[in-house]
Every structure is written in structure tokens, then in C-alpha cells.
UniProtKB/TrEMBL annotation:
This is LLM class flavin-dependent oxidoreductase. It comes from Nocardiopsis changdeensis. Keywords: Flavoprotein, FMN, Monooxygenase, Oxidoreductase. InterPro entries: Luciferase-like_dom, Luciferase-like_sf, SsuD_RutA_monooxygenase. Residues 13-324 form the Luciferase-like domain. Pfam families: Bac_luciferase.
């Protein structure tokens, strides 16, 4: 293998991270402000399918971050929304998020079996270990006694029970966190929903390597992302499994590179510092540290993910470079305005990423 992760494969997947929370993914007063409505997300999903993207995914979010924009103050529920979008689409994979600390595995097993039937085999479960205390404390469902490693032991047991419910006629289980007595979950899904998770901790990567079909990865830079891809794939290989790797990318596009960069700067100019600080505090950072980090470059902090800017040609080139260098199997894309920008991307970038007849079905 060369210094890069490898050449992009024909089955490289492209999808979108749906704006299930108000404000989408750019925390700014000067950026477009997607509304958390089914109609808005339905249009985005239909456009993704129309332009040949492979999957649509939605997060689970239970509390916003305030600030001038009240970022994510309004959200939809992931699983029920994706059931609707499964009916609204025919080909794209529909991946919904479940928090293991909110949904008993027997409930989740039944819900995703139903989603898989609605979707005709296209469903996926994004497994999230709930980590932002205030989201769950507001419901009385935050267990302070569970440290990070404990939460992954919980999720490991949760997922093992889930997989048994999808394959066994009845499940008896007396574990550290769950007890099931002759538990039935019929019918079983005709094909197991795709399992996806994110996280870069040792516990998170080990969990993904044992149970997941897809891993969403982040890193400080491209070499770090390449190393993370290699790491989780090697872990899975040692388990006798394979795993696909994905990352997130925000696309800010215009007719020229200069116009796209001006657009990005305008969005960054309105960074909602209060919401960004509240977000970092929810991760567990002290208030002063969160404020210091945000104040360094608020115009970049407004974008919650790495971003690319440029003309359609430049955007296509940058995406190919990222996928090739890191050895990714797919990218989940974010747009400022999912209706206008996704259509523009579909018309002018997807044909560059996938010439006619080259789209993989993987």
C-alpha cells in the first residue's frame, strides 16, 4: 500500500447527515437555518436518492444548546422519522440512531425489525452510547455511577442481547445490566439491519470491531484519519470480520473557489459562540476551557465537522483526495442548505465522483 490509504473504490459510498435538529450543522447566525421538520428532511432525502447518493442518516438529540440561534432547540425523533423516509424513498439506505441508555434492547429489536420491513432491507442502526449528561438527566435517566468504560460494557451487553433477539426464538439472559426471561421478539428481520457506531476511544473501537458493519471516524488531520481507518479495520480483521469506515464532511460550494470561500467566511462570521461553548461544556469540558477553545477561531468552530470549499471541480478533487488518502469507504456529507446545495452538488459534483455506469451498489 502506498502512503495514502488506497485508491477510492467503485463502491465508495456517499450519503447525507440529515438536519433533524433546527439549524442543521453550522452553528451560526449568518448561515442558512434548516428547520427540524419532516417536510424539510423528506425533501433532502428524496434529493439524495434522486442524485445517486447511497444513504441517509439522522442523529438522536434530546436537548439543544441555546445561544442566539437556539441551536438544536427543536429536534425530531430519529427512528420514527426514518420510518417515514423509508416510505418516501426506494433505494437509499436509511440509518437511524438509538441511544442504548434510553431504549431497552428488546424494544429496539422490535422497532428496527419493523423499520427493516418498511425499508425493504435498507435499514441501519447507529448505536450511540449516551454521553452528554444534561440530555438524559432532564429525563431522570442519567446514571452518574457509570464511567466511560462502564457505558461501553453496558452497550456491549445491550448489543449482544439485541443480536440474540434477532436470531433466537426465545432469549434467557442474566447479565450485569439486563435480565430477560424467555423473551420473544418475532418476527426476526429477514436480513439483519446494518450496525454502525462512532467513537475513537479504545473501548469504542473495540466495540465497533466486534459488532459493527460501519465505523464513523474523526481525527485532527488526514494522517490521523488514515491511521484511525487502518486501526479499526485491523481490529475487525483480528475478530475475523470486516468493517467499512466513514467520516463526515461539510461542503460549501459556489461557481468559483473565491465565491465559495467568501460564502464560508460569511457563515463563520456569525458563529454562535454561546451555543458552541454550551456544546463543549456538554462534552465535559470546563466552562473556561470551552470558551477559550471556541474563542481561538470561532469562524471555524461554527462548522462542527471538517469542511471543503470551492467550485464543483475543486470540491470533487478534494473529496477524492480525502477518501483516497484516508482509505475511507464512504463520506457522510453536510450542506448549509440541503435543498439548494444538495441539488447543486448532485447536478455538478456527483457526475465527477461517479462517471456514468461507475456507481457501486455496496
Amino acid at each position: 500500500m502506498s502512503e495514502s490509504g488506497g485508491t477510492p473504490a467503485a463502491d465508495t459510498e456517499y450519503g447525507i447527515f440529515l438536519p433533524i435538529g433546527s439549524g442543521g450543522w453550522i452553528v451560526s447566525e449568518t448561515a442558512p437555518h434548516p428547520e427540524a421538520t419532516y417536510a424539510y428532511n423528506r425533501r433532502a432525502a428524496v434529493l439524495a436518492e434522486q442524485y445517486g447518493l447511497d444513504f441517509i442518516m439522522s442523529m438522536g438529540k434530546w436537548r439543544g444548546y441555546g445561544g442566539a440561534t437556539d441551536h438544536w432547540g427543536r429536534t425530531l425523533e430519529s427512528i420514527t422519522m426514518m420510518a417515514g423516509l423509508a416510505e418516501a424513498t426506494e433505494r437509499v439506505k436509511v440509518w437511524a440512531t438509538v441511544h442504548t441508555n434510553l431504549f431497552h434492547p428488546a424494544i429496539a429489536a422490535k422497532m428496527f425489525t419493523t423499520l427493516q420491513e418498511i425499508a425493504g432491507g435498507r435499514a441501519g442502526m447507529n448505536i450511540v452510547v449516551g454521553a452528554y449528561a444534561k440530555e438524559f438527566a432532564q429525563m431522570g435517566l442519567w446514571d452518574e455511577s457509570l464511567a466511560h468504560g462502564d457505558r461501553y460494557r453496558w452497550t456491549e451487553e445491550w448489543t449482544s442481547v439485541l443480536e440474540r433477539l434477532w436470531s433466537e426464538q426465545a432469549v434467557d439472559h442474566d447479565g450485569e445490566y439486563f435480565r430477560l426471561d424467555d423473551c420473544r421478539s418475532l418476527p426476526h428481520p429477514a436480513t439483519r439491519p446494518t450496525l454502525i457506531a462512532a467513537g475513537r476511544s479504545e473501548a469504542g473501537l473495540d466495540f465497533q470491531s466486534r459488532h459493527c458493519d460501519g465505523s464513523f471516524l474523526t481525527a485532527q488531520d488526514l494522517p490521523g484519519l488514515r491511521d484511525a481507518c487502518r486501526d479499526v479495520k485491523l481490529r475487525a480483521e483480528k475478530q475475523g470480520r470486516s468493517i467499512r469506515t466513514y467520516s463526515m464532511l461539510t461542503v460549501v460550494m459556489a461557481d468559483t473557489d473565491e465565491e465559495a470561500e467568501a460564502r464560508r467566511l460569511e457563515y463563520g462570521r456569525g458563529a454562535d459562540v454561546e451555543a458552541l461553548v454550551n456544546m463543549k461544556v456538554s462534552w465535559g469540558l470546563p466552562q473556561d476551557k470551552a470558551l477559550s477553545l471556541t474563542a481561538e477561531r470561532p469562524e471555524d468552530e461554527a462548522f462542527q465537522t471538517p469542511f471543503v470549499t470551492g467550485s464543483p471541480q475543486t470540491v470533487a478533487e478534494r473529496i477524492r483526495e480525502i477518501v483516497e488518502f484516508a482509505g475511507l469507504d464512504g463520506l457522510m456529507l453536510i450542506f448549509p442548505d440541503y435543498h439548494t446545495d444538495l441539488a447543486d452538488f448532485g447536478e455538478r459534483v456527483m457526475p465527477l465522483l461517479r462517471p456514468a455506469g461507475a456507481r457501486g451498489e455496496g
